[in-house]
Amino acid sequence: MVPKVLRRLARRLLRRTGYAVVWRNPRGYSLPSHLIVLFERLGVDCVLDVGAHFGEYGSLLRHYGYRGRIVSFEPVAANFERLTDARAGDPDWHAYDIALGSEDGELDLNVARDTALSSFLEPSSRPLTAALAVESRERVRVRTLDSMFEECVAGLRDPRVFLKMDTQGWDREVVRGAGRTLPRLAGLQSEVSVLPLYEGMTDYLEAIHELQGLGFELTGIYPVAYDGFRVVELDVVLARAAG
Predict the structure, then answer these.
(1) CB burial of residue 45 (10 Å; 0-12, 13-18, 19+)
(2) Do strands 93-96 and 69-73 pair parallel, antiparallel, or not at all (unpaired)?
(3) Threshold 0.70, pTM exceeds
(4) CA-to-CA distance for 188 and 240, rounded, in angstroms?
(5) Closest CA to 188 of 84, 91, 51
(6) pLDDT score, position 14
(7) What are the pLDDT digits (tens) for 7-49?
(8) Cα→Cα distances 103→120, 154, 233, Å
């Protein structure tokens, strides 16, 4: 490791020549590498991928060596078709064309120009990107995690479950529908908002505080998107608190 005083000196010298230097984290802790280390530590054998889009998260986990069960949830019809292609040939990657929320039923989903940004919430009145524009609305099925959990872990002995949520401002509703399930989770990941993309989004500090209050402790924070130099969204990773 390079001593801090030498780092500062190198930065000053390079700045004069028009260059900048960035020191890499010696542990190389990107979000994927953090997750794999955490999964090993927690013994995770089932990942609930809520807001799966095209299956990018599941594919990422497979690429980094996770071989346990994945259960993906994606309500947008066109997205679900691509998710089905992504998991083809993977017998332990399952998928449901439904959304998760605080109660069972049906809701209208705002399908955005960039379908990864589709949400049950309305886009902010001061949108940060044109990709948020609503191009259509789909009536989708909604279930609670409590009502789906046993089906997701069927056949697993003493399952160690990790919940990933990327629902564009809807994560809190997913958690509200998981009152009986939360104590059975080994850890979770949630996308939180620093600059609100949607009306009525939970502030990131409040969201983290609520998750900690439910018995989880923070293990990692990773920026997702920027608006210039401002962070827009973060992925936060938490594990069941010890003791």
Answers:
(1) buried
(2) parallel
(3) yes
(4) 8
(5) 51
(6) 43
(7) 444 444 444 444 444 434 444 569 999 999 999 999 999 999 9
(8) 14, 22, 26
**What are the distances in angstroms from CA 91 to CA 84, 138, 203?**
12, 29, 38
N-term to C-term CA, the chain: 34
Please name the residues in contact with 97: beta carbons below 8 A apart, sequence gap of 6 or more.
74, 75, 77, 80, 141
**Residue among 76, 30, 27 nearest 55 (CA):** 76
Determine the average pLDDT of the residues in 204-212.
96
Residue the block writes with tokens 């069972």: 104
The helix/strand/coil state of 204 is helix
Q: How far is residue 238's CA from residue 221's CA, in Å, rounded to a whole number? A: 9
How far is residue 239 from each of residues 21, 24, 165, 185, measured CA to CA in Å?
33, 25, 14, 8
CA angle at residue 189 from 144 to 102, to 5 degrees?
20
- Phi and psi, residue 167, nearest 5°: -120, 20
- Tokens 């989880």 map to which residue? 216
Q: Which CATH number fits domain 30-105+139-240: 3.40.50.150, 3.40.50.2000, 3.10.25.10, 3.30.1490.100?
A: 3.40.50.150
